[in-house]
Design brief:
Methylamine Dehydrogenase, Chain H, 1 helix, 379 residues
Length: 379
């Protein structure tokens, strides 16, 4: 397995603020700026955009541009930020023999506007996830977890073919949890990174299409390539706690998010409808709910298809069908969406549910850059 990794180059690990500057193109990229990727940070307080010219960072509520680095000729297909800190993970799209190729992860310190390390692999990097203590690199059939402090491999895991780079991590240090596809169709593996233990969950019959963990790593949401059901599991013991029905027609699920207060689940799909589902108030603590989930699993094997109850969405919002949106949660029953078309939306639902109200809709490339910088984070 280690043969997938070529080498790791570390520059100035002892102090992030004394890192050497990577050689980067000085000429401005030609043509219009195009979005290659969008990704929320860990608590939806901001998001990062990879473009064909570089990357940009935005904060929310209200939306503002914080950083714009548009001096890279080939751009970045992956751009991930660590909360609202100065640390970013970037992966190039590989055009024109770029110095940022698609098989390398660069950790960028924007305080010094430089790369302080790079991780190189024999195959293309599909996705990257960040924790304060770890860097997670997802390849087609392997997930590497590095310690942020010394860039040594903390652990690695084999997965089924994972073309979307599915992986999610918790952010509470007391529960260092990572979830990714298992080795078999429809399976999820959940790793406790502190205890070095793993739990395998048979989540769906079809391949996994989307997954998300709560910040504390207690709840796991999954959807399959069929896209009709969203399932909520206890991440640590694998118990099925709740099941939601998005629809009866097959659809590609773009994004799923669980609110930090464990009350709501938001789902976006190719059908152009944002669905918000209500979690049971005592979903993690009530034996009654666990018994209900067990009964549901039993009934699923006895009753005809669709005759058992799946909970429908509490609130909905219509989106352009042609755009892929990634969802997050804001305060006071608000849902945030960033689109691959360069749009940002903020909408709200009330206690009655139903159709949501749009509060904000902007094209983020047209925003003025804010004066304040991101903060320096201590690892």
């Amino acid at each position: 397995m280690m043969s997938s990794m070529i080498f790791s180059t570390v520059r100035g690990i002892g102090s992030l603020l004394k890192s050497e500057t990577c050689n980067s193109p000085s000429d401005e990229a030609n043509g219009d700026k195009k979005v290659l990727s969008v990704a929320w940070n860990q608590d939806w307080s901001g998001f990062m955009v990879g473009t064909n010219q570089g990357f940009s960072v935005y904060t929310c509520n209200p939306i503002n541009e914080r950083i714009s680095r548009d001096t890279h000729k080939s751009g970045f297909k992956i751009a991930e930020m660590l909360f609202l800190s100065n640390l970013f993970a970037i992966v190039g799209n590989g055009y024109n023999h770029s110095e940022y190729p698609p098989n390398k992860v660069f950790i960028w310190d924007d305080h010094s506007k430089s790369c302080f390390c790079e991780l190189a692999f024999k195959s293309e990097v599909i996705s990257v996830k960040l924790r304060r203590k770890h860097i997670v690199v997802v390849l087609r059939k392997t997930v590497y977890v590095y310690s942020f402090s010394d860039l040594k491999v903390h652990c690695l895991m084999e997965t089924a073919v994972n073309p979307k780079g599915l992986c999610c991590v918790s952010q509470v240090e007391a529960k260092a949890v990572l979830a990714c596809p298992g080795r078999h169709q429809g399976q999820v593996q959940v790793h406790d990174l502190r205890r070095n233990t793993v739990k395998y969950i048979k989540a769906h019959d079809s391949h996994i299409a989307c997954m998300s963990l709560t910040l504390d790593g207690s709840l796991l949401a999954t959807a399959s390539t069929k896209g009709t059901l969203i399932r909520i599991f206890n991440a640590l013991d694998g118990t099925l706690l709740q099941e939601f029905r998005r629809g009866i027609v097959r659809a590609e699920i773009y994004s799923v998010a669980i609110s930090t207060n464990h009350k709501w689940v938001a789902v976006s799909s190719e059908k152009g409808t944002l669905h918000v589902f209500r979690l049971r108030p005592d979903i993690l603590s009530s034996p009654k709910n666990i018994n209900q989930a067990s009964s549901l699993s039993l009934l699923r094997g006895i009753l005809p298809k669709y005759s058992y109850e799946n909970e429908r969405s509490f609130a909905q919002f219509s989106l352009p069908v042609s755009t892929k949106f990634t969802v997050g949660f804001g305060p006071e029953n608000t849902v945030l969406l960033v689109g691959i078309d360069g749009s940002y939306r903020r909408c709200r639902f009330d206690g009655e549910g139903g159709q949501m109200v749009e509060l904000e809709h902007k094209q983020f490339f047209s925003l003025q850059q804010a004066d304040n910088d991101t903060m320096v984070v201590n690892l």
